[in-house]
Design goal:
With 612 residues, chain A is of the alpha/beta class. Chain A is 36% helix and 20% strand. Chain B has helices at residues 25-35, 74-84, 96-102, 104-113, 158-164, 178-190, 212-215, 217-223, 271-278, 300-315, 320-325; strands spanning 46-50, 65-68, 89-95, 117-123, 169-174, 195-200, 224-226, 234-235, 241-246, 249-254, 287-294, 329-332. Chain B has an eight-stranded mixed beta sheet with strand order 2-1-3-4-6-5-11-7, with helices on both faces. A three-stranded antiparallel beta sheet of chain B has the order 8-9-10. The chains are: A alpha/beta (612), B alpha/beta (333). Bound molecules: iron/sulfur cluster (SF4). Residues 19-20, 23, 25, 54, 124, 128, 203-206 of chain B line the site of iron/sulfur cluster.
Amino acid sequence: MTQETVEKVVIFFAGDSGDGIQLTGSQFTNTAALYGNDLSTFPDFPAEIRAPQGTLAGVSGFQISFGSTEIFTPGDECDVLVVMNVAALKANLKRLKKGGAIILNTDGFDKRNLRLAGFADDENPLTDNSLADYRVSEMNVTKLTRECLVDVTLGVKEKDRCKNMFVLGFVYWMYNRSLEHTIDFLKQKFNSKPDVLEANTRVLKAGYNFANTCEISSSRFDVKPAKMASGTYRNIMGNQATAMGLIAASQQSGLDLFYGSYPITPASDILHELAKHKNFSVRSFQAEDEIAAVSASIGASFGGALGVTATSGPGVALKGEAIGLAFMLELPLIIVNVQRGGPSTGLPTKTEQADLLQAMYGRNGEAPVPVISASTPSDCFEATLDACRIAIEHMTPVFFLSDGYIANGAEPWLFPQSKDLQSIKVPMTKKENTDYLPYKRDDKLVREWAIPGMSGLEHRVGGLEKEDLTGNVSYDSGNHELMVKTRAEKVERIADFIPNQELDAGSEKATVLVLAWGSTYGAIKTAVKELLAEGYSVAHAHLRYINPFPKNLESLIRAYDKVLIPEINNGQLIKLIRDKYVIDAIPMNKIQGIPFEAREIKNRIIELHDGE
Amino acid sequence: MENKVYTAKDFSSDQEVRWCPGCGDYSILKQVQSVMPEINVPKEDIVFISGIGCSSRFPYYMETFGMHSIHGRATAIASGLKAARPDLSVWIITGDGDSLSIGGNHLIHLLRRNFDTNVLLFNNQIYGLTKGQYSPTSEKGKKTKSTPMGSIDHPFNPLALCMGADATFIARTMDRDPKHMREMLMRSNNHKGTSLLEIYQNCNVFNDGAFFGMTDKATKMNQTLFLEHGQPLVFGENKDKGIRLDGFKPIIVSLEDCSIDELWIHNEKDRVKAGLLTRFFDADFPRPFGVFYSEDRPTYEDALVQQIDDAMQQKGQGNLDDLLKGSNTWTID
Ligand code: SF4
């Protein structure tokens, strides 16, 4: 046996959706995080909840990249592939690098599983030499798990449910990890079921000991803690961070949070998370449909709450008319879009950035809405809080764009203290304001807010064109033009209240600028960092504010010869940049429902850099 | 809270009322404005929310808080408002197209959730604002601009639909009977939960006389039946007819042949009988007016506030720093 120290490892866990893969992955993640590794994870769910067992469609996966160095993405190629059955192997072998390790459950390679995974009767990857390029560790996980639980009174089904713990124990040994965190977790999870707790713990240890004593695994690896900024960290997923950002905004503004939502992948976890926090006065409301969800949120905002609705692209399509109403009423409203593959129902469990133009333009009439985006799982927190600040302080609906990749991805987070968070000033009028006019504006062009309960400030608002100042219905043509321009200018002036765009890496004198937004951050960051170390002249700017753009954006990008815009869509930010600045940026698009790999971006930058 | 004394005039806004002359909406506006001083709510705590349609202009004419929203969504907007602000008196103004066609989904969900709001459903059996297409309550065969050969749609029976959605209060009145309307508005207001008041409203421009038989002196006594809790179902020119129940089958009887003791006694709390009453919907039976059904059921907003209180009791008021920290942290020096 050898013991090796490595800087970074990418593991992919895969199995049937009933195999507990997500739990296995998240346990490994938390243990790695507590050990001090930097990391990034990404779950790969099957599209159907109950796809037939043993089939390719039923494979659930979880990828983690962890290391003693900075980690920005879940990794391109995997070093280790852990598979519970042959379908999981077949679906994911392409992710494994040549020479990588495969840990497999031979019980998942029987006749039935082979047939379900689409192998012919005489085919079996275990015997046909097709895995010769890899280091394979075979074990009868199901059989070993059952043996270890012979004297336990659980049914076979329940015993088999522990087999993910065997694999987890095995991998813990390989990477020299303590079982302590997972045992604590099991104690909490099964505190009312002592026999299930005992079974899981026993199997976890059995897997660990099996790795220690058997001959099949020849090496053990050390991945030292990463050198990260000092402070206290936790692990965070994007949707969780979004939920926390909303609660933080409610606290910072003093407005109660109302969250109206209709279940939709991949946004539902925000609803689940918020529903847990009613002790923050969160009013979560599962509406009858997408339209009701946004409408109820508008009603709540009208009453003086912070109205928020979240969904994915198809839901935004349904909410369009109501968002136009909120725009006309000039009330705070947050629309969270956790983007997924489109159009139509598209690829619900896959990621995409194809709803940017929908956020920008998807309404009737002239209705510009600010657009804010998040770039990593933890960035969802601050970006959400920022979106809420803009919505409240500027009395406008605001789009917050996340996507399936960062919503479900996780990373360590140097979480902030509440005292360091930005405060939010609510433009509520004074109770004694005797000459209140609903559509009188301040120098930001923001109207003052008066809510029901404020005596003497009774007024009516609505979706019909408003008369300047009074807000009365007006069909006057001159007034309409004035109001359209004023509302647009109000959104433009938000640029005065957001920071200038900064470079994430590289210098203003570089040859190539990579300009991007959203979840492409990690892959670009990794690529640019490596290229800078290799001496390439490249810089990276990553946008949070897409509407309006930061004021210095034009001058910033004009300094570069070549501006590359990678997006997980068919070219959307690039349309906005070309339209606004008439700069001929260079598109780079991937539309496969999966994120960019760092090496893809790297190769493209090199091509551009060296002159194509 | 000091109780201001209001008059109907205090509830009239400075906006010019713009319905067609002779429209039934005028009467409804007047009765609502005259009932408002009696509900004992400061006017800053009253909100009128409407969707789209002729009736939905209503909030502009009320000197309260108000929102003229988008087609069909007033019910959903009011739900969010009431969830956020249970202290407010919330009134939803809607029409037959707004609430039963484009907003049908939100109406039934409002009713089952039982937010304490008052729905005034102006039913004129036509699309007025868009100039005269048939509506989901227009009778079969109706000739309109969009149905030159007659409508082939089976119409909704609004109150039967609302019973089906487990509404806790349903009632009917008409624009031509101000006194009854005021009484029904008060009953709606006093009901804790969603009250659904259907108001037969004449659109004299596109559907004049839709309810003629029920409002005209010569016919109305025979075609209408006014419900009163605990009272027998009696109607007719000389109060000479009644309804008797034969099992679950209503039968019209003459009081000459049948003693008043044998008649169906109206009971607002009886869901099954209320269901039967909503089915008095064709020419064979007089059309009932009044409160069909009324039930006490916890409101959504009360249950929501209760959960918030319970969560605070169990976990203590939320602490942002604890939330940010979560349960697993590690420190790097
Ligand atoms: S069209 Fe009919 S309902 Fe509309 S305002 Fe005129 S009369 Fe009233």
